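Researcher: Batch entry, complex prediction.
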Amino acid sequence: MKMRIEVLDTTLRDGAQGEGIIFSLEDKIRVIRKLDELGVDIIEAGNPSSNPKDRQLFAYARDHLKPANAMLAAFGSTCRPHAKAADSPECVCLAECGVQAVTVFGKASRHHVDKVLETTEEENLRIIADTVGYLKKKGLLVVFDAEHFFDGYGIDRVYALDVLKTARDAGADRLVLCDTNGGTMPWDIARIVGDAVSTLGGYIGIHCHNDAGMAAACTMEAVRAGAMHVQGSVNGFGERCGNADLCTVIPGLALKLGKEVLREGSLSRLGDTARLVADTVNLPMNENSPYVGRSAFTHKGGMHIDAMLKNPDTFEHVDPGKLGASRKYLLSEMAGRGALMTRLREIDPALKKESPETGRILGELKQLEADGYSFEGAEASLKLRLLEMLGRRRSFFKLTDFHVVCGKPGDNENSQAYVKVSVNGQTEITADEGDGPVNAIDLAVRKALARFYPCITRMKLMDFKVRVVNNLGTASGVRVAMETTDGRHVWSTVGVSSNIIEASVIALTDSIEYMLCGETEGWD
Amino acid sequence: MKMRIEVLDTTLRDGAQGEGIIFSLEDKIRVIRKLDELGVDIIEAGNPSSNPKDRQLFAYARDHLKPANAMLAAFGSTCRPHAKAADSPECVCLAECGVQAVTVFGKASRHHVDKVLETTEEENLRIIADTVGYLKKKGLLVVFDAEHFFDGYGIDRVYALDVLKTARDAGADRLVLCDTNGGTMPWDIARIVGDAVSTLGGYIGIHCHNDAGMAAACTMEAVRAGAMHVQGSVNGFGERCGNADLCTVIPGLALKLGKEVLREGSLSRLGDTARLVADTVNLPMNENSPYVGRSAFTHKGGMHIDAMLKNPDTFEHVDPGKLGASRKYLLSEMAGRGALMTRLREIDPALKKESPETGRILGELKQLEADGYSFEGAEASLKLRLLEMLGRRRSFFKLTDFHVVCGKPGDNENSQAYVKVSVNGQTEITADEGDGPVNAIDLAVRKALARFYPCITRMKLMDFKVRVVNNLGTASGVRVAMETTDGRHVWSTVGVSSNIIEASVIALTDSIEYMLCGETEGWD
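Model: Structure tokens for the complex:
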């Protein structure tokens, strides 16, 4: 039988300590639902005595949130030196906030007991025993986080292990070894966890930070050494360099160590979870993230792509299907015919690698790239170009003329655009104003086209990026990349010109045309 | 004596295979200069037979780039089966492109020899020996990259080691074990590198990919097992999930393993290098990156900050000073004052950390940053803002009015700008035309000012980057970053507005003013 590893997610507690990460009450509820769906065992959702938002959350959860799989946990500290847990408002708050599980942290390093807690080693052990005992009597599952355990072990092994024994003897259900400063190396984690497991037995857990870039590796080593409970956060969000990234650790445990983790089918929901959490805090998803990033199974080098097309296991360490992901080939100056063929065959299944048309199209694409185009992340423009090269691009409209006037800014309508479009021989001339020239043209073109294609009123520009493609000053080439949505689909286009307005207009008209293609001929 | 570890940087080759990463020729030259300054031993700059840009780069490098510390390396493949290296255009191109070092890759996995190369095991060994031998005869330092070494070792240990022996016997100077698919675990890397080191002796290197999130840990384990040469990229840029991040590995080798790596003082230049490389490809810096991210030494949790103020080693695994970084506290009166003080004292040595002026300036800067400004990589704009906040900004000119008209592009002068400037009460009205609105305004403003300040005719815009600072479409805020030169100095400015033209004008007028400052009051 496979060994089952328990997962505690701390995205909403330790993750919320990351710079720029703020969860509203509604955000937390949304993330809890998603983590429960994913199959996380314990969701550490906040620290009720540190802020009113978390108190509100637990009050709400008690009546309205019934996770199907997960236990909800609240986080807090042991009582203070010379106090009793039962008289400590923080401990009472933890015990009474309505959760089934609590994570309580105590100091495992003599240095921290002395310098931060400013008490004696004995008193530290007493408050740990008292707090754990108090929470156990309340019928809670108690996860004991031994803060600074690894640094403390380096200073005084016996004391660090005594802290664990104290918590265990007081009834703690999990003893979690924390690399709070994130500087411990994987080989040291392996050695020290091994020692704790053999000295104490019991249910050992691991909590790593990523300050040395090793949190995921350290977590894996801890499990190899006998830890059965892992803590981490989605996308590795957390203070400083973050926590162990559960999106890396969970597939690693399942696929590399052969452990049972979360539930059947969880792996294929991990990517969605990662994206939802990033969206929730309005941070960009790291697309290079192992297993869950959009680039994780994206191939660019020409020789790599050719090899992948011969045999898909040649450049992949796991099957992307296991993660609910799919393989992608990029077209770039480094790509050969292999990558192109997968795109061309979507348009015309009869096309062959050796056919002269394929060679011609590859040549035209390389010329466009030499001119500064980049079709990576501009799939919509690529598709339109390929249709055009194959003589299959349908003309929906022509922007036959425009000009735009920009005055000294000061209000929000500082730019005026005049546009003339033609659709099937019919002409429409109109104008609009906007904040900046591209905004004014965008509004005017869509106003002119709405008469013919009402659907385009649903279009909304999401992102807009500009980059000079060679360093000759403003008169050199600029590449404009745009991301557009209609509320259901998202697509990306690109335009290149020596003139930023023209480059924007190319990306914009591609974007409109791609939407019209999708609406009339079906979305990809 | 400390063991010295050699570093090969492949940002410009393997890094360029990352999705969305495109280096122009000028970009590559800029990055090479920075890596050389950092103290990298070998800079793998491109693959001359895969694309014309890299051929151009090496041709340029031969005559114009003389790195002070680094060797420049070109990357390529062994010759094809049944061919001779001396007759193979790719191998000849590698040998003749003018570098001192080459990285040549060959297959170390039986599976790849059979399925991708489609030849016999013996023929694969022959082409490796022939290619390495040919390149050695040309007097080059030969780094042999054993592709898919770890997967190959798992399939057939003897054959994988035979590949290394063949390369060594043919004269290869470095034998680099590549985890090409990035799926090997650190403990397996340690075991297999240990075996290769003890079986072969010789100068073993390591090249890891990050598909399982373990590339940095794997690289560290390889060095512990005896590897003396490490390959990786700045910010971990690279195909799929990227390569081992040198910004994590280099501090790890120096601070955690006590190895000698790069040069004296290199660690404190690492952050700058990371930022320059990210800026060059117009990707956001990952601010949670170990050692070099802005959040790496940023404390947010209230209890953590309290502990840090009592004793700075309580929540840091290394001293940020070693990385040329500084500690930051969020949500705290103390935040950022230290860093700000160094800038303020350059302007007014009498200013104190506690003075009310310092607090006011900090507040104003925070407001600008909340509006979307970012002064990192825009030192010229920062200096002007600080002078202004201290009431010491000198007024050289005012752009009192402008407007610009852009027609449908077609020729190179599609935009006309009218500008009105005033200098010491004197007014100059003029106009000019250009390729795009920013170019037209730039030309017109400088034409108007040249009467008063002839030196500005030497000014030349080098780079121009635009990014939307929140995702509300073209009407949202845009940040324009500009880089300007007068042939001797290079400076960077930034402007933010909801209107791209206004943002550009702010960056442009800052740039002109900074130059006039430098010319009249001395350059920094």
